[in-house]
Amino acid sequence: MSEGDVAFACAQAFVGTLAQFGLTDACVSPGSRSTPIVLALARQPDVRVHMHLDERASAFFALGLAKASNRPVVVACTSGTAAANLLPAVVEASMARVPLILLTADRPPDLRGVGANQAIDQLELFGRHVRWFADAPLPTEGPDATSAWVGLAAQTHARACSPGPVHVNLPFREPLVPAGDEVQPGSAMTAFGGTLVNEGALPVEDDVDGFVGAIRNERRGVLYVGGLRSPSASIVELGKRLGWPVIAEPTSGLRVPGTLAAGQFLLSNEHYSQGHVPNLVVQFGAAPTSRAAVDLVGSAGRLVIVDPDDVVADPHRRAERRFVLHAGELARVVAGDLSERPAGAWLVEWVEADARARLAVDETIDAWEEPYEGRLARDLAASLPDGSTLVVGSSMPVRDLDAYMAPREGLGVLANRGASGIDGFVSTALGVAASGAPTTAYCGDLTLLHDVGSLLWSARRGHDAVFVVPNNDGGVIFSFLPQRALPEFEELFTTPHGLDFASICAAAGAGHARVERAAELVPAIETARTAGGVHVVEVPIDREENVRRHAEVLASVADALRGP
Fold first, then answer.
1. Fold of 3-171
2. Three-class SS of residue 473?
3. What is the pLDDT of residues 196-207, one digit of tens each?
4. What is the DSSP letter of 136?
5. Cα 119 from chain centroid?
6. CA atoms within 13 A on the CB side of 140
7. 371-541: which CATH architecture?
8. pLDDT of residue 481
9. What is the mean pLDDT of the chain?
10. End-to-end CA distance of the chain
11. How far apart are CA 471 and CA 428, in angstroms?
12. Is residue 394 within 8 Å of residue 422, measured between CB atoms?
């Protein structure tokens, strides 16, 4: 029996076991050394294989699939720098607790460290960014040849469900292509219906008592909800029972009726925020996105964090208690034990100020015919059909969405906010689309260009996704930062590109529309979505005008909060 047949049999046992645990998707890239594992994935009837030219794009595509499905997804590649290209997505998956199974092909141990072609040190290549690492045994012959691979697959899947990325290095000896000899892998596994990814430990009586003891007697509190993988309406209900305002970021999945509609504007208004410093902030999920919200949790008298993913979401190191628990279950149990308080002056002040601020924002931006990025975010989020997923890019888009999105039901919002990078965004959004969710993406022009290779490779491959891209010819976020005053501002920070998006889309085979008026945005998105396929809706933005309008919005909110 050839080495190729033995390796393929072991790889089949490994993949078959993952499939029995519920694996449905794998992302692969071309390479020779990975032949046994990619053949096993391609010939497993229960697994969809997504082919990518670029390993970095492949890993981010898998990241999007895993985020959307909340199930492990395989990324397989050949040896050498191909494996190193997975690192950016691995970092994001690690910090965002996304279940990825990284399978890197490698030379056998006797060919490591001797100058063999396309060989690098792949042992623990991703360091502490993975939950677990294993260097698989060389495939061998014999009646129990595949048993070690079956057990390795079971352990791999369990570790990925922690959740987070895991790395298995797979050494294969040449020849790599099976000759076709019959091999019976003989798995001892029984059919298994799949494993849900861990969403935090379930609360026990001591946890509930400790949490209730920390919050029960506080009237001047704020419930802040950052990014969550598993939103629960019980969290909003808890705020209602406590008589506290609830500020929910879009990525929490809880920017719904019952939460503040202009919370970020209230926090960023110095006069209002200084007059409404809470005695206690209870933070569910990830650390806040905006600086104003970071200041909120940093200035509160007390801070309690419910951190289901154990990301230690406490950059100020101020939390007096941190509960690493299933957020929804804790909120459900505690809300059920509390009697609803009548709305006191504290909550009434927040709700009334929120209504005035929201009205001021909407009246101000509705008066402008030319596109403004805050209005793009608001109108996009409001217009998408129920059941849609909005994938939002880092930098200004996620901040604009946080500030301007009105509460609504029926919309899922995903973002790469673990490490908050812009890289791999196109691939992530297309991975979300591959999960079957109606997908719209909102990102800046540099974010799209940073991952333009994914657009070129994937636009013709059967995905349906609409990318809404405010094009301000560079990095507009730096216009809001101190770097704005530097003489090298344009050259080193905003980096204007001057590229023609219509030509890029034509080369990629993607649809393209250019929107010149704010009122044209929603019809353009609907046209693109109805047509199917990958489309880019480009919205030209004057960078300096955008900064001025941002200041106008803040001024209108300040006027509204001062009252008559």
1. Rossmann fold (3.40.50)
2. coil
3. 688 888 899 999
4. P
5. 32
6. 9
7. 3-Layer(aba) Sandwich (3.40)
8. 78
9. 92
10. 87
11. 20
12. yes
